[in-house]
Automatic annotation (TrEMBL):
The chain crosses the membrane at residues 145-167, 173-194. This is Antibiotic biosynthesis monooxygenase. Keywords: Membrane, Monooxygenase, Oxidoreductase, Transmembrane, Transmembrane helix. It comes from the Bacteria. The keyword Oxidoreductase applies. GO terms for molecular function: monooxygenase activity. The keyword NADP does not apply.
Length: 206
């Protein structure tokens, strides 16, 4: 199934950086952020080191949808930037937060350097560390999905009951039709709305 094309997508990247070249790496990470700000659909980005003695660095950026994200990822500017850091930076892991994870906004880095989409640091004496909510507990995610799915399924079952002869269809065909109809409704409308409504509860105590 293709990735949703109309919802924001967050990309989280884990890299190993040569600890003897942290000054160069800091400038390099910042230049990547500055380059991304010039692309349409850019919603923000940030980076952070895992710890003072760690060689793990995390970067994440967010775009309006898959098409604007791919415009950045496939650009010559990004290719040049990646090549310029090849000597001291190696990519370990990349995650796109879409589907369930995208609904709950759970990037794996716990802090980022706050920046506006235009590229300017948040007003202060320097970079500001701001917390990003961790993923809600799985039981909260399950309740949220159920709260969206139950009334949607009830309404669909009621409406399909008006289809002449539908009750006599083989079970597999009835389920197939229902899931084909409900999957895009859940993905594009119901779950985004439910998670917005429940966001304070989902992230309480996180």
């Amino acid at each position: 199934m293709a990735e949703p094309d109309t919802h924001p997508i967050t990309v989280a990247i884990e890299r190993r950086i040569d600890p003897t070249r942290t000054v160069e790496a800091t400038s390099w990470m910042q230049s990547g952020t500055d380059l991304a700000t010039g692309f349409a659909g850019f919603l923000g980005s940030g980076w952070v080191r895992a710890g003072e003695g760690s060689d793990l660095w995390y970067m994440l950026y967010r775009f309006r949808d898959i098409s604007t994200l791919e415009a950045w990822e496939q650009s010559s500017q990004r290719a040049w930037w990646l090549e310029s850091g090849h000597a001291f930076a190696s990519e370990v892991r990349v995650e796109r937060r879409t589907g369930i994870e995208g609904w709950f906004d759970a990037p794996f880095a716990t802090h980022v350097e706050a920046r506006h989409p235009a590229g300017e640091p948040t007003p202060a004496t320097g970079p500001i560390q701001q917390p990003i909510p961790a993923a809600p507990p799985r039981w909260k995610q399950a309740i949220t999905i159920w709260l969206g799915f139950f009334p949607t399924n009830m309404l669909a079952s009621w409406l399909l009951g008006f289809v002449p002869g539908f009750a006599e269809w083989p079970l597999v065909l009835r389920v197939l039709l229902a899931t084909i109809a409900l999957t895009p409704v859940m993905t594009y409308f119901v779950l985004p709305w439910v998670t917005r409504m429940l966001r304070p509860w989902l992230h309480r105590g996180a």
